[in-house]
Design a protein that fits this description.
The structure is a single chain. With 154 residues, the chain is α+β, with helices and mostly antiparallel strands. The chain has a single domain, classed as RutC-like (60s Ribosomal Protein L30, Chain: A, 2-Layer Sandwich), CATH 3.30.1330.40. The protein has 3 helices and 7 strands. The strands form 2 sheets. The protein has a 5-stranded mixed β-sheet with strand order 1-2-7-5-6. Helix 2 crosses helix 3. It starts with a helix and ends with a strand. The relative contact order is 0.25.
Length: 154
């Protein structure tokens, strides 16, 4: 079992099957030693888990839960792309989109749900640059969508 997989096991997390794209795009692109993963939604068991808008119907804790689910799905895509999470050299950057009201300003706290989980799961390999931005709406009404760039073994 890989170090990342062992950490996931310790966290009680089993990676799901990587989700298929919902439109005309691919879930990931490998180029050189970079892996670009398309935006992942807060899904578990093949179903969207957290919908709504931060600053209206959802709390920051709800948003963190959604962001954590997105991060789990990012790792599932990384595993599908590489076959082994130990081929991941490091997480370079995540971009988190938060479905939020115009006056909501706690997007960074929401995306911490993903950042904290990724560092727990990946250790120092999971420390990353990031952006946390507001979105007026997101696909299927989800609370959060997150995309990522990983460095992988060439």
């Amino acid at each position: 079992m890989s170090t990342i997989e062992a950490r996931l096991n310790d966290l009680g997390v089993t990676l799901p099957e990587a989700a298929a794209p919902a439109a005309n795009y691919v879930p990931f692109v490998k180029t050189g030693n970079q892996l670009f993963i398309s935006g992942q939604l807060p899904m578990a068991d093949g179903k969207i888990q957290v919908t709504g808008k931060l600053g209206d119907t959802l709390s920051i804790e709800d948003g963190k839960t959604a962001a954590r689910l997105c991060a789990i799905n990012l790792l599932a895509q990384a595993k599908a792309a590489t076959g082994d999470l130990e081929k991941v050299v490091r997480l370079v950057k995540i971009v988190g989109f938060v479905n939020s009201t115009a006056d909501f300003g706690d997007q960074p706290q929401v995306i911490n749900g993903a950042s904290d989980f990724l560092v727990e799961a990946m250790g120092d390999k999971g420390r990353h640059a990031r952006s946390a931005v507001s979105a007026a709406s997101l696909p299927f009404g989800v609370a959060v969508e997150i995309e990522a760039i990983f460095e992988i073994e060439a």
